[in-house]
Amino acid sequence: MIPLSTSPAPRPAEIQIVSKPLPQVIYPVMKKFEDLTEREVLALAIGLEEEDERVYSDFAEGLRQDYPATATMFDGMREEESGHRRRLIELFQKKFGEHIPLIRRQDVRGFVERPALWLVRPLRIDAVRKEASTMEVETRRFYEKAAARTQDASIRQLLDDLANEERGHEVRAQELDLPEQAKADEEVAQRRLFVLQIVQPGLAGLMDGSVSTLAPVFAAALATQKSWDAFLVGLAASAGAGISMGFAEALSDDGSLTGRGHPWVRGVICGAMTAVGGIGHTLPFLIKDFRLALWAAGLVVLAELGVITWIRRRYMDTPWVTAALQVGLGGVLVFVTGVLIGIS
Questions:
Q1: CB-based contacts of 265: which residues, under 8 Å, 6+ apart?
Q2: N or C: which terminus of the chain carries fewer CB neighbours within 10 A?
Q3: Interatomic CA distance for residues 61 and 82, integer angstroms
C-alpha cells in the first residue's frame, strides 16, 4: 500500500499587478501672440471680427427702442465688421485653404476680458459708448501689431487697411457722430428713462417716508415727552414703511411695457428712500433734551419738504409755487394730525 503524500499542493505563482499613473499631459491654457503663425493670426482676426459683429448687433437691438439713431449707427458698424470678416476669410482661403482653425480671444494672451454689457437691459448709452470705443482700440492695436510681424505682403496690406478702418470706428464710437436733432432726441429719451427708473420711485419713497411718518413720530414725542420713545417709534415706522413701499413698487409692474426698468431695482430705490425720509426727522430725537430734539426734528422736516419740492421742480417740471403748495399741504396735514393725537 502506497502512503499518500500529506504535503500541500504547490500554489500557482502569484501575479502582482503594479499600476503606475500615466504621465500627466498639460496643455497650455493660452498662447502667446508672438508664437502665432500667419495662418493663426488670420484665424484669430476672423474670430475677433465675428465677435465684434455680434456685439454690435446686440447693442443695436438693445438701444433700438429708446435710442433709434444710435442703434442705426451700430447697425452700420456691424455691417462694416461683417465686411472685414469676409475680406479676411477670402484672403485666408486663398493662402491656407478652406479650413479655418478655431482661435478665440480667450485663447491668446494680452486681450482684456470684456464685461457682457450686451446682456444687460436696459442698456446705458454711456457704458455702451465706452465699451464700443474700448473694443475698437483693442482691435486696432491687434491689427497694427499683427501687421508689424507679418512677412507676407498681401496679409500685411490687409491688416494695415483694417487697422486704419478700425481707427475710424474708434472715433465714431467715442463721439457718436449723430445729427444734432438725433442727439437732442436721444438726450431727451435718456432723461426720460432716468426719471422713470430712478427719480420717480425715489421721489415716491422720499415723499412717503418724510410725510407719512410725521404723525407717529410727533404723536409719540408729544404723548410721552421722551426723546428715546419718539426715536424708537420713528425708527420702527421708517423701517416698516421702507419695506412696505419697496415691495409695493417692485410688485406694481415688471417694467416691460412702461419702460420703468427692473422692478426689484425700483423697489430697492423706493424702499431705501422711504426709510431715509422717515429716519431724517427721527435722528434728532437721539438728543436727550426733549425740547431741543423737538425743534431740531421740525427743522429737519422743513428741509425734507424743501428737497422734495426741489426734486419735483427739477425733474417733474412742476412750477415752484405748485410744488411747494402740494408738498407743504400734505406735510402740514399729517403733522397736525400727529400733534392732535399726541396732545389728546
A1: 197
A2: N
A3: 17
Q: What is the model's pLDDT at position 44?
A: 93
Residues 221 and 287 in one domain: yes
Residues of the chain with pLDDT > 70, as a percent, come to 80
| Closest listed residue to residue 297, CA positions, set 309, 283, 308 | 283
- Which comes out higher in pLDDT, residue 21 or 273? 273
Using CA atoms, how far apart are residues 199 and 6, in angstroms rounded to an integer? 102
- Please give the radius of gyration of the chain, using alpha carbons only, rounded to the nearest integer: 35
Question: In this structure, which amino acid lies at residue 206?
Answer: L
| 214 and 328 assigned to the same domain | yes
Four-CA torsion 96, 101, 106, 112, nearest 10 degrees: 30
309/314 Cα distance (integer angstroms): 9
What pLDDT score was predicted for residue 86? Answer: 95
Mean pLDDT, the chain, rounded, equals: 81
Are 318 and 311 within 8 A, CB to CB? no
Closest CA to 276 of 307, 306, 239: 239
Residues 217 and 190 reside in one and the same domain: yes
User: 149 with 187, same domain?
Assistant: no
Answer whether residue 193 is part of any domain.
Answer: yes
DSSP characters over 49-89: HHHHHHHHHHHHHHHTTT-HHHHHHHHHHHHHHHHHHHHHH
Higher pLDDT, 303 or 255: 303
Provide the domain limits for residue 301. Answer: 182-343
Instruction: Tell whether the torsion through CA atoms of 8, 9, 13 and 15 is positive or negative.
Output: negative
The stretch 323-327 carries a mean pLDDT of 85
